[in-house]
Amino acid sequence: MNEREFLENYDPRAFEPLAVTVDVVTLTIREGRLKVLLVERGEPPFAGRRALPGGFVRDDDLDNAARRELAEETGLLPRVHLEQLASFGDPGRDPRMRVVSVAYLAFGPSLADPVAGGDAATALWADVDAAGPLAFDHDRILAAGLERARSKLEYTPLATAFVGDEFTISELRSVYAAVWGEDLHAGNFHRKVLSVPGFVESTGATTERSSQRGGPRARLYRAGDARILHPALLRPAREEEVR
Amino acid sequence: MNEREFLENYDPRAFEPLAVTVDVVTLTIREGRLKVLLVERGEPPFAGRRALPGGFVRDDDLDNAARRELAEETGLLPRVHLEQLASFGDPGRDPRMRVVSVAYLAFGPSLADPVAGGDAATALWADVDAAGPLAFDHDRILAAGLERARSKLEYTPLATAFVGDEFTISELRSVYAAVWGEDLHAGNFHRKVLSVPGFVESTGATTERSSQRGGPRARLYRAGDARILHPALLRPAREEEVR
DNA sequence: GCAAAAGTGTTACCTGTACACCCATGC
DNA sequence: GCATGGGTGTACAGGTAACACTTTTGC
After folding, report:
1. Is the keyword Transport assigned to this protein (chains A, B) (predicted)?
2. Do A144 and A188 fall into the same domain?
3. What is the CATH number of the domain that holds B138?
4. Considering only residues 189-218 of protein chain B, which place a Cβ less than 7 A from any atom of strand D?
5. Do residues B149 and B178 touch, judged by C-beta distance below 8 A?
6. Dihedral (CA of A186, A188, A189, A193) sign
7. Parent domain of A163
């Protein structure tokens, strides 16, 4: 291949038009259940269907594009953990043209209701088990995000991104219960969290007037400096997942 | 936003030209060491520098684009495990124009020498510790691929993708040693591999005339049907990684 | 015989799990 | 007192790590 052919091949306009978008799977916990942030599409295709918030990549890098979309379409921004999930580029995933989507995964503590803006007609928190069917291939993207979140709870302190700056071990346990969809033994969970170095550190304080019906005041903790949990908090193994 | 504005925004030609490429981190084991497949660039920018094989996304989906690149540029194809790694889209990562790269990770057993083809002037297997500096941001992509590979050896039967259809436990151990960069205790490794359900299954046969200097004939195994390893084979924890 | 590598036995230790239990508090 | 939930003790099961040891082959 000579120089001329090389540069021709390098021009994307020589190929089928191709767009790059970011779509964001934003998870939080509300009412003890895991919720995902969705928007309702106002335009075809899939008008009226729910979809993940997203938009086109412009001049900024991919991470910033995801952060911008989250802010523009929903008004959410502060204190969200954001990471890249995967890319989806099947031809035909958007009926209009070839679109490659870089999906992102975001976690945040329960905040105010989302504010619709940008392209989004309305924005809402939906239960993850009752979210679909979504527009495009967003069901698949959501499923990938959920699996990633469930897995990362095991070996990273990600759960602390779902709670406030100060939290009780019980609040942390309810995060695990909501994301994994199963209850955890309170006593063992408590001991295990405290035994992982750098996961949480005590503030010395306790909850003030507890909103609970009874019981002692729980001690308050903040996130520690560990980036990975060792030893990990493993989900109870399910037989069908092993083989 | 009305329909007209919407469609305008939807046209990628209204924005900065944007290309999508796939770049592939292909790993194998040769001479007991972990190697990565590289090509030597014939054209600027970075002419003469090594780079990951890759190319533009055309009509096929991303997975197929990665498979095609691997075949075109290197002549390798059969029996490679291929999975998406991550996407890289920083503005300026390619000095010519905006390029979003979807990186893939491939593993295969040691095969014939790669065949240069397509854009690649030459293709070669390089030691992973002596691969860089690579063109573009490929050092970063390679680092991401290595970390993914090291991590996946722990909880998936990925190591079996580095060996032939039938293999000995020792061969499998040498895969772990090469990828993790540390020796493992032969006896304990042996017992552990056999204790994980579905990791390997015996063929009943043994090695014929062993090429080794002495010792008994090793039994042969093939990959089992487990998709995840339970319990996992954890790397020895390093203190600096914990916090 | 000797060296090398496969494979096994044994033991000490460590972690996760289950379950019982105590304690502090609100009502 | 009694219910509720935070927090701890303890015993058992299972996995890990270290190390010695036996077995089988090539030279």
Report:
1. no
2. no
3. 3.90.79.10
4. 192, 195, 209-210, 213-217
5. no
6. positive
7. 156-242
